[in-house]
Amino acid sequence: MRDKPIGSQLRIILEKMFEGTGITYSDQYVKTDDWYLKYRWTEEQENEFTDWLADYLYKNSQARKELMALSTKSKAACMKAAIQFTSFFGWTTSEKRKQN
């Protein structure tokens, strides 16, 4: 269980991620183990969230400072951070990725 308080920018991001799950975001819920494994989204929802997060990070210096190791205002760095966040904490994707 996480003891560290949830930062204000992270809370906004998680609230956005919780949209569509049918439950309301709560700090206590995300402090439980493996909370991010309990819901699913489609690849389209995952991509929309990742794009939203990259844009949010790019436009919001406080969010960059709170979430990114290097808070450089760069679209590429913000997209990389958004992809990384979604990979680690995003819901499980319900569609299998196509193999080439």
Structural overview:
With 100 residues, this protein is mainly alpha-helical. It has one domain (8-93). The protein contains 5 helices and 2 strands; from the N terminus they run H-H-E-H-H-H-E. The protein has a two-stranded parallel ribbon with strand order 1-2. Helix 3 (43-59) crosses helix 4. It is globular, with a radius of gyration of 14 Å. It starts with 7 loop residues before the first helix and ends in a 7-residue tail after the last strand.
Outline:
It contains five helices and two strands; from the N terminus they run H-H-E-H-H-H-E.
Produce the secondary structure layout.
Blueprint: H1 8-18, H2 27-30, E1 40-41, H3 43-59, H4 61-67, H5 75-89, E2 92-93
Parallel strand pairs: 1-2
Overall structural class, as computed from helix and strand content, comes to mainly alpha
Count of all domains: 1
Strand order of the largest sheet: 1-2
The number of helical runs is: 5
Calculate the terminal CA-CA distance, rounded to whole Å. 39 Å
Global outline = globular
Radius of gyration: 14 Å
Number of strands: 2
N-to-C SSE series?
HHEHHHE
User: What is the average of the pLDDT values?
Assistant: 87
Fraction in helix: 40-55%
The largest β sheet comes out as: 2 strands, parallel
Strand content: under 5%
- Detail the poorly predicted runs: none
